[in-house]
Amino acid sequence: MSHGAGGKASRRLVEGLFAPLLLSGSDGALTDAAHIEIGGAPVHFTTDSFVVKPLRFPGGSIGELAVNGTINDLAVSGARARAIVVTFILEEGLSSSVLEAEVRAMSAALSRAGVAMVGGDTKVVERGKADGMYISTAGIGSPIFGITIDARTVRPGDRVLLSGPVGDHGITILLARGELDLEADLCSDTRSVLPMVEALAAEAGPGIRWMRDPTRGGVATALNELARDCGLGVELLEEEIPIHDAVRGACELLGLDPLHIANEGQFLAVIAPEYADLALNALQQTEGGDDARIIGQIREEPANAVLVNTRYGGSRIVDMLVGDPLPRIC
Amino acid sequence: MSHGAGGKASRRLVEGLFAPLLLSGSDGALTDAAHIEIGGAPVHFTTDSFVVKPLRFPGGSIGELAVNGTINDLAVSGARARAIVVTFILEEGLSSSVLEAEVRAMSAALSRAGVAMVGGDTKVVERGKADGMYISTAGIGSPIFGITIDARTVRPGDRVLLSGPVGDHGITILLARGELDLEADLCSDTRSVLPMVEALAAEAGPGIRWMRDPTRGGVATALNELARDCGLGVELLEEEIPIHDAVRGACELLGLDPLHIANEGQFLAVIAPEYADLALNALQQTEGGDDARIIGQIREEPANAVLVNTRYGGSRIVDMLVGDPLPRIC
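The joint structure predicted for all components is written out below.
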């Protein structure tokens, strides 16, 4: 299961098997969307699959997640989604009302983002050969004017910006399964981050060095990948990282680190220091960006690692997610 | 199961639920790939999912099918694949050698076609929540110069061209499952049809009106969709349709119509009469196109239907596939 969790085992699978055999043109930095050129026009291209359990949860559902996930992967690669395609793998016997609800959720998410669905495919497998439905989406987008996302441009002194509270999605899913005797007033953060990314690009475009949406594996995994890709260290201030009490409480009870919990409506950005205030203001003035914070900065040391300064004056190294504490979170 | 079979129930699902809610910009003709414009450049965009059982079969495997399926959907829409993305949904416990074999099969198919894989995603679900592995691919392509595919341009008198024998893929899969007490010396026809489409475009480009790869639902379903989309009739000459003896025999035994059996390496084209000979020669001189035939022509009547003139002088109307005689064929 850990090979699908987005952490260390996933990265080993990608770097050990998929990249050498399949991504022959890859430059080594594994980003959320590929940049290619078609007929002279730059195109960003991405894909993702969704196996979240349960299909519906407080704040969202698999269909809405599938649309926003692809819009977000394009957004943090510096592109505005232009068209999406979808495949459904349905389990025989799935109620048509469940399918219709997800199609409607996708339709609403597409409308909100102003993105077109241009094609799709459906397969049905026998009862017991899927779990209700699985969805894959792929999207193409065109570059947002004036920004370039490249981990290799990150420099010591750059600021790390986070769009809002961490862990809401992962903990919401965990609680929605009802396997734990825990309840909390919590919703998934699933949403399109494109409006925030566009606001950031408009106000602080030249200062944006890198972005990523911290989904599976959480903020810690995304920033460890950044540290590795730029060869520098990421220093975080724990007290600056927004976390809802319910998430903090559930993590303490379960022995999980909120920095490893999946998010579906947040993004991280590395911003040149002279643009940091502009960037933060831009996010905070965009709907849904009130809780954006500068949570740390880039340092020479510890190279290739993420260091968290705790609220009690200590510090700890936070690694990528290892294993899979929360399977099928998206 | 029939909703995933590519025939009538699939079309009802697409037209009744997916198209009205999701494909808001659709013009009604459901094609294998969408045509959009990005930064002024025309881009074709398609997706498909693969749940074939077994994963490997004589002549191919799921990974190779996933790559060629997307290349072929683009090819019959009049485009050359430029980049592909992939998602894997893996069942916990899947052997790594099985996964590696499929990654290698994909890699080989990509190399043969000269197409780049530019990204992907992997999810793992618990044992019993998938059947080994499911794969979705999406692809973007750029138009092949000088051809336009549009069912609305089809005219009475146009010829129907078929690239090779029908039914090899579907019957191979059926036999590979070992549930029937039948054996035959038969391979799936899975392959890229792009070289044949490019040869056709080069020699008879202005004469090409429409193309389609007759996968799920077979030649009959593809041509019924054409008949409906152009409002004309398709008249086929049964004795001109190439069918291997093993396929004919298995179909007779099982009460199946070979025209409903899935193909993975064939395509249909409607060609203006003055280009028909050029087109046929172009295919027959391309590797793998020896068995190409003109199998019929477009008529005013029977409007919206497919008529087959049998080898014994009779004729019959062949409908789209109804139900799913062969689930999980691709």
